[in-house]
Design goal:
The protein has 8 helices and 8 strands. It has 249 residues and is an alpha/beta fold. The chain has a single domain, classed as Rossmann fold, CATH 3.40.50.
Length: 249
């Protein structure tokens, strides 16, 4: 049996909802899934001690307990793979856009931008520390979802992307290829970066189809209140299912 763990902030809510509807799938795949989460940036207080992810914050430990179903600490060695759903995805175009345009990005510039993101992102650093704590466990950083196609930035990007005769689409495709190549090279030993599930993305690969954003719920024990309509960053159980299937594929 494979033991899989998802660790993150509010973005683990989508996976948590999904696995509640995936019992038969998990049995067929012979996989056991746990979820550990804590709201917003509180996970920054997480630390690794004696092979477990824990925190001096009672708030974080309590959140771990209700999201995992009783465990206030994450025992790293218990799992075959730990997937981190927090921090910015390295596959986002936002790192390269100072405005609505997609500039030409050289190989060297892409290296510099990615190096900065990897160094500064607390969630990526947490994921790497988990990997270093136990080299027999695969640690995958997916990060937060790419924003919905209905967000203002996505609408402008997608409109320009499909404009006939525009250089925008050409540069966007070149950027996508460059990012994919560069991020793949950043993996080390048992630590890797993964894009979001491709089935959830629109044509350019930089945004999530809005159908996977609709009906997303707040990250609370009750899980009965939806996000506001102008929340374009949180996803629903359909997206969560795609993430689980993507990781297990």
């Amino acid at each position: 049996m494979k033991r899989l763990c998802f660790l993150g902030n509010s973005h683990v809510a989508a996976v948590r909802l999904a696995i509640g509807e995936m019992q038969e799938y998990c049995v067929a795949k012979d996989v056991e899934i746990d979820v550990f989460g804590s709201q917003r940036n509180s996970l920054r207080a997480a630390e690794i001690k004696n092979g477990v992810v824990t925190s001096s914050s009672k708030f974080v430990r309590n959140n771990f307990q209700w999201t995992s179903g009783g465990m206030s600490e994450l025992d790293i060695g218990r799992y075959d793979e730990i997937v981190v759903l927090a921090g910015l995805s390295l596959f986002s175009s936002a790192h390269y856009q100072a405005n609505a345009e997609v500039p030409f990005v050289s190989s060297g510039l892409a290296d510099a931008i990615l190096a900065h993101r990897v160094k500064e992102d607390w969630a990526i650093n947490l994921a790497r520390e988990i990997a270093q704590a136990n080299r027999s466990v695969t640690v995958t950083h997916i990060g937060s979802p790419l924003i919905s196609t209905q967000s203002p930035r996505a609408k402008k990007f997608i409109s320009s992307y499909h404009e006939v005769g525009s250089e925008f689409g050409v540069r966007a495709k070149q950027l996508k290829t460059l990012i994919t190549q560069k991020v793949a090279a950043l993996g080390e030993s048992n630590f890797r970066f993964s894009p979001p599930p491709s089935a959830a993305l629109e044509d350019s690969g930089f945004f999530t189809e809005h159908v996977y954003c609709q009906g997303s719920v707040l990250f609370t024990p009750e899980a009965n209140e939806e996000h506001k309509r102008d929340d374009f960053s949180h996803m629903n159980a359909k997206y969560g299912r795609l993430v689980v299937e993507h990781v297990l594929s």
